[in-house]
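Researcher: Here's a chain I'd like modeled. Treat it as a single chain, no partners, no ligands.
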Amino acid sequence: MAKLEVIATNKDDILKIDFSKASRIELVEELEKGGLTPNLDLIKFAKENSDLPIRIMIRPHDKSFNYDNEDIEQMKRDIDNVKNIGCEGVVFGVLNEDNELNFEAMQQLVKIAKPMKITFHRAIDDIPTNKLEETLLKLESLKIDTILTSLGHIEEEKDKRFNILKNSQIEVMYGSGVSVKNIDIIKEKFPLEFYHVGSSARKNNCLKEDIVVEKIDDIVDKIS
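Model: Modeled as a single isolated chain. Structure tokens:
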């Protein structure tokens, strides 16, 4: 039975998603920027008011996935804060200037994050397809738990990337335009145990609108 992770950006989102059939929450702020690290008060509220597993976005800015030393130090502090609050996991990914995995930075962050669960986010989609297999081996060595992907930016390469990813030891979660209207097609083409939604769980499929529990439940019913 497939499961659904839903993005939350505020207290109301958290309470509504917790009331829905969703299986996990990804907590972010500034969703219109692709999601940045939420503030500590919101993280604490989520932990105290939701029974669902919660993974916290660790992303200091939306300029790129290439972070300088100051950014990495901030990410370390944010991860440590999340660990102290007691959330299930964190979501992050670090690349170098060539859009390849920054293994050294990832090692540092993973060391602080464990034993929490770790999702390597859509930074994976920026990694060239010819580098994807070796990247997966490195992520496996780091004991990454989940990869969130839209299967890259080139339509003709999506099937190839899916076939590489699905043979990994890491849980793969698809999230790109998933909605109640297309989930049947997506599930058939990319059969996975976890899917991920943001705007399609909201009124008018708009990032700035409120979560609609019924929309989440309709998607879950279709993937169950």
